[in-house]
Structures are given as structure tokens and as C-alpha cells.
Specification:
This protein is α+β, with helices and mostly antiparallel strands. The chain is built from 2 helices and 4 strands; from the N terminus they run αββββα. The strands form 2 sheets. Strands 1-4 form a two-stranded antiparallel ribbon. The protein starts with 6 loop residues before the first helix and ends in a 17-residue tail after the last helix.
Length: about 100
């Protein structure tokens, strides 16, 4: 079991950082809407996690800055545990409508 990074453990650390950032920054809302893990079977440590990050802020430049900071946090967490952090898609509030 040591040959696979523990995706749920890394995801938990990232969610805590997202939560803390959301609390510490006035006017910011940051959350992880859900977590998906693969493989999703009993008695197997998942090696993959998908976490949709939702960051909302009063001004788009501030939102982008926070998203960049959180991406860096995710990369540091996964690098420390021989994992990989990949941004699959980034949308601005205007793109999601």
C-alpha cells in the first residue's frame, strides 16, 4: 500500500486549507463542493481525488489571486507526499452562466 499516494489524506489537507482561507479573508467564499476518489472500492487506498473548488469574491482580481494561492497550496501538499496536483479547468464567474 505504500506504492500509491493516499489521495483522501491529501484531499483532506487541501480542504482544510480552503476552509481556513475562506474564513480568514473578508468577503471571500471558498469551498469544495464534493470529493470523488478512484478507485472507489472497499479496502483500497484511492490514488486519485477530484475536488471541484469554488471561490467567490467581491472582485475578480482578488478571486484570481486567491485561486492562485490555493493552487500553490495544493501543489505543495501533493509534492510533500509524492502526489500530483493538476488543475483541469478554471472558470471565471462570467463563464459559468
Amino acid at each position: 500500500m505504500l506504492d500509491r499516494p493516499d489521495a483522501p489524506a491529501m484531499a483532506t489537507k487541501f480542504v482544510r486549507e480552503v476552509h481556513a482561507t475562506g474564513i480568514q479573508t473578508k468577503g471571500l467564499r471558498a469551498t469544495i463542493g464534493r470529493m470523488d476518489f478512484l478507485p472507489n472500492t472497499p479496502h483500497v487506498i484511492p490514488g486519485y481525488a477530484r475536488l471541484p473548488l469554488d471561490v467567490r469574491y467581491l472582485e475578480d482580481p482578488g478571486r484570481k489571486r486567491v485561486v492562485g494561492q490555493l493552487i500553490n497550496v495544493g501543489q505543495r501538499i501533493t509534492q510533500a507526499e509524492d502526489g500530483t496536483f493538476v488543475v483541469l479547468e478554471e472558470m471565471s464567474p462570467r463563464q459559468s452562466k
